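Backbones bend. Our protein:
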Amino acid sequence: MKLLVTNDDGIGSVFLHQLIAALRAAGHELYVAAPAAEQSWTGASKTRSRPVKSAAVDRGFGCPTWILDGTPSDCVNIALAHLLTDRIDGVVSGINLGFNCSLGFILASGTVAGAWEGALHGLPALAASQDVSGETYKHLKELGGSPDGELLATLKVSAGHAARLVGEIFPVTPKNSFTVHSLNFPLPCAPDTRVLRTVPAQVHVPKLFSPAADDGSHRLLWGQILDVSPPEPLTDVQCLAQGCISHTVLDYRRLGH
């Protein structure tokens, strides 16, 4: 299939690179349009207060690649309208550094939003995210470290699962389904790790920001997340805790039902 690939961690993310490698190994023809810099937690926002710049680059992916100084939604919208000359078969977003589980994170996720922008164009869409420990997240996000050892091995396996599931899901997804298939991979993830259907966990996410500093500013922190989900059905958070791959079908047509 011909696929457009994006993410929200930016063009330099090794997690994106592993997804691209796995999709190419599965025989897909790729186009990449990714943010020039990190755009995490931008949700489905589009840049309206300034022009968005795009530039063709060669990052060694073996496929046409562009960077844009906008959000994941910007990347997909602009790529589909102005950068691609071929009709594509679907949009794949990720792999995100960290999970995108629960209503508290799905709705804020730039990764899920990149896939959603594809669904808004009537295309099959999939978002992939990799669970990591808090220590690893800090090492990679704040200190600029690179994944190695167990995490790199898991990432390669997770990317392989994502490529396989794209090949299974997209051909049977009708146009205009307005649906995003959200995958969350556990740590560790093995070739035989089970994939389970899940629903988004229902969580409260209070106190995400620090108290006001002397200048009146509040800084983003990690508050205490309170899971108030009922025992059934299985949630994405519970699925990862069991060491399984979570597959949540986000059918936006159901909103309001």
About this structure: The chain has one domain: 2-200+233-254. Residues 2-200+233-254 form a domain with the Stationary-phase Survival Protein Sure Homolog; Chain: A, fold (CATH 3.40.1210.10). The helical segments are 14-25, 72-83, 103-106, 110-120, 134-141, 149-169, 236-241. The chain has seven helices and eleven strands.
